[in-house]
Recover the amino acids of this structure.
């Protein structure tokens, strides 16, 4: 199992990254309950070798990006911070799509300022907005890249057809879709990205409501000397070499547990049992 992946041909990072959504308040809204711990999580992640942090202007909103800069700026050489634009936040747990060029311009400029960066290494469209002509959204991203504000461009929650449509305007280097050992709706997207040198970044890597899957994960965890969550993360790393993980947490201890998943060994038999969980989860 390869430990690194190269995004866009020039950003080589470790496949175990960190997702910075959970360092905000309840409902991904406002400041965290324990700001000092949130800052420690970010600092500890980098200490443990994380060189890929995923965030978005809508996390907080703005809070996650501000905390990243407070905890880590000036940034360690090689640290890649990916952020996203295209959603607005009128309140806790409420997300509205807005991929109008004028909104994305404001979002990108805000992210650059909050993160204290001149260029975003990976800027991801948080959602395609059905209310906005697709070509207008793509034209903005293309223009921002040509101006040097964005190095690489990614998409989120998209189909193969949507990726191909976007590729007529931009080079898509990453796709971030919901995906886990027991949620395989986007298996075709994973296969397409793997075959086309595009990073696949799963969010929600453990669908904890699936009792059958949890029993299997827990059983394999006991066999392998890890937790159910570590098994779910380890399976993703073994499942496809283009998968980058961004498990999120607001706790240093949970962060350290997540990072341990990279060292967890799974046998062929255990992998087959985990693969079988996806048979009924596609669709």
């Amino acid at each position: 199992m390869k430990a690194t992946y190269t995004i866009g041909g020039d950003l080589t990072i470790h496949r175990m990254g960190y997702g910075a959504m959970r360092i905000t308040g309840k409902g991904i809204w406002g400041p965290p309950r324990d700001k000092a711990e949130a800052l420690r999580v970010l600092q500890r992640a980098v200490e443990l070798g994380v060189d890929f942090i995923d965030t978005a202007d809508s996390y907080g909103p703005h809070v996650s990006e501000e905390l990243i800069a407070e905890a880590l700026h000036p940034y360690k050489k090689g640290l890649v911070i990916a952020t996203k634009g295209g959603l607005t936040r009128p309140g806790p747990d409420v997300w509205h799509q807005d991929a109008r060029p004028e909104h994305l311009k404001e979002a990108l400029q805000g992210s650059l300022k909050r993160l204290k960066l001149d260029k975003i290494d990976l800027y991801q469209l948080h959602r395609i907005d059905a209310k906005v002509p697709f070509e207008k959204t793509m034209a903005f991203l293309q223009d921002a890249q040509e101006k040097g504000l964005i190095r690489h461009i990614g998409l989120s929650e998209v189909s193969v057809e949507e990726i191909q449509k976007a590729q007529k305007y931009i080079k898509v280097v990453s796709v971030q879709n919901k995906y886990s050992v027991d949620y395989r709706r986007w298996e075709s997207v994973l296969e397409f990205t793997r075959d086309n040198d595009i990073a696949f970044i799963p969010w929600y890597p453990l669908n904890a409501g699936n009792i059958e899957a949890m029993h299997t994960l827990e059983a394999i965890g006991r066999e392998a000397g890890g937790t159910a969550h570590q098994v779910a993360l380890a399976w993703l790393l073994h499942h496809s070499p283009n998968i980058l993980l961004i498990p999120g947490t607001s706790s240093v201890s949970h962060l350290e547990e997540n990072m341990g998943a990279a060292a967890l060994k799974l046998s062929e038999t255990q992998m087959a049992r985990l693969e079988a969980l996806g048979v009924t989860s596609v669709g």
In short: The chain has ten helices and eleven strands. The domain at 4-207+241-250 is CATH 3.20.20.100 (TIM Barrel).
